[in-house]
Q: What sequence folds into this?
């Protein structure tokens, strides 16, 4: 699950769910640079997910956290056996 700093249409934190298989696809990237420079705020800094192998070319701007889950309940936001990655930087991230 990728969480954005932006709010979704319902006013809650925007997030999107992607499978590990989709994230391993050659057309999926988690970008922090563009044209040799840090990603600008306009383009989704500090990290932007682009998953171009999914319908609609899914993208998450202003990525705040990544959460790994064994399962994702479709009708609820409950978390099951998760590891959350926060505090992204160009040199790494911290896990909670």
A:
């Amino acid at each position: 699950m990728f969480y954005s700093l932006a709010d979704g249409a319902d006013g809650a934190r925007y997030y999107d769910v992607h499978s590990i298989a989709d994230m391993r696809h050659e057309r999926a990237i988690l970008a922090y640079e563009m044209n040799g420079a840090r990603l600008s705020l306009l383009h989704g800094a500090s990290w932007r997910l682009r998953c171009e192998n999914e319908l609609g070319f899914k993208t998450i701007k202003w990525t705040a956290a990544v959460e790994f889950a064994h399962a994702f309940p479709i009708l609820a936001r409950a978390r099951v056996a998760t590891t959350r990655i926060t505090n992204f930087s160009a040199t790494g991230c911290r896990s909670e």
Q: What stands out?
A: Residues 65 and 86 are 5 Å apart (CA to CA). Residues 2-88 form one domain. The radius of gyration is 13 Å. The chain has a mean pLDDT of 75.
